[in-house]
Amino acid sequence: MARPDINRSGEIEVFVRVVEAGSFSAAARALRMTPSAVSKLIARLEARLGARLVSRSTRRLQLTPEGSAFYESGSRILADMAAAEREAAAGAAPRGRLRVNSYVPFGVHRLVQLLPRFLERYPEISVDLVLTDNVIDLMAERADVAIRAGPLGESRLVARKLGQSPAVVVAAPSYLKAQGMPLKPAALHTHNLMSFGFVRHVDGWPFLDADGKAMMVPITGNATVSDGEAMRGMALAGVGIARLARWHVADDIEAGRLVLLLEAFNPGDAEATHAVYVGQGPHLPARVRAFLDFLGESVRLA
User: Fold this and answer.
1) Distance (Å, rounded) from C-alpha 206 to C-alpha 190?
2) Burial of 206 (0-12, 13-18, 19+ CB in 10 A)
């Protein structure tokens, strides 16, 4: 834990100025400090970090690998501080860059349709949207909000539930015409069950048997995909049978592009969708709070 008398933001600002100015003396002039004061501050920073940031063996300022990494992180920290000050000075009005990371199906079938309305409501917010089903580190990826499906692990992050939807087993009419309609869960052993490439919490699909007891059918098939939208596409193409959230394939079922299978044996388990973020209360940026409230009023999953 840093001592309270250490001005870490001040040290970062001086170091960033040195790098951008190209020398201690140029940075000193810009900061209205003496070159020796700048040099001593950088030396004190290096001693505290236990790493050499700047090579002093040549006349031309050169960064060490540690110095380059610290400069990149420091520049982002200063930019975020400046944005926070601008936001506070403006009465915490929603503005600035909002970084959103969403699992692919939700991004494709919900966010892409909702974002135009959000941006129209908050014209001073810009959105940086990344779609991936991989679990991410919000701090490392510098995301303000991550939207994820399924159980949440232990975390210091805050989560807001956006809704939940039951899981269903579906296949395309073309697949069923070629391979036949499975009438019981046990019949799935002879079918092509598609799976996900990322880590799942279970190794099979849950069902109820004829007596209403829980059972698990192993996932066996020749198709593994990276995300739910890819699995939906493979199912529509007739590659195999998929198990997805009902909201994700509801339009396909209604249009007859996909057929519900084994609903009499569906255990009724539901998949929840959460918006996960850092901070809460007065420490939550206005742009993040506005986005979370917008999702809460706009998202419907069934």
Assistant:
1) 17
2) middle
Mean predicted confidence (pLDDT) in 193-198: 86
Six-digit token pair at 241?
């049978």
Is residue 155 very low, low, confident or very high in pLDDT (cuts 50, 70, 90)?
A: low
At the top level of CATH, the class of 8-89 is mainly alpha
| Pairing outcome for strands 96-102 and 145-149 | parallel
Report yes or no: 198 and 281 within 8 Å, Cβ to Cβ: no
Q: Which residue type sits at 211?
A: D
Q: Is the pLDDT of residue 89 over 70?
A: no
Question: 3-state DSSP call for residue 126?
Answer: strand
Would you tell me which CATH number, out of the four given (3.40.190.10, 3.40.50.150, 3.40.30.10, 3.20.20.70), belongs to the domain 96-164+272-298? 3.40.190.10
Rounded CA-CA distance 213/201 in Å is 20
Query: Topology of domain 165-270, per CATH?
Result: D-Maltodextrin-Binding Protein; domain 2 (3.40.190)
172 half-sphere exposure, CB direction, 13 A CA radius: 16
DSSP of 240-292: -BEEEEHHHHHHHHHHTSSEEE-GGG----EEEEEEEES--GGGS-HHHHHHH
Domain 96-164+272-298 in the same topology as domain 8-89: no
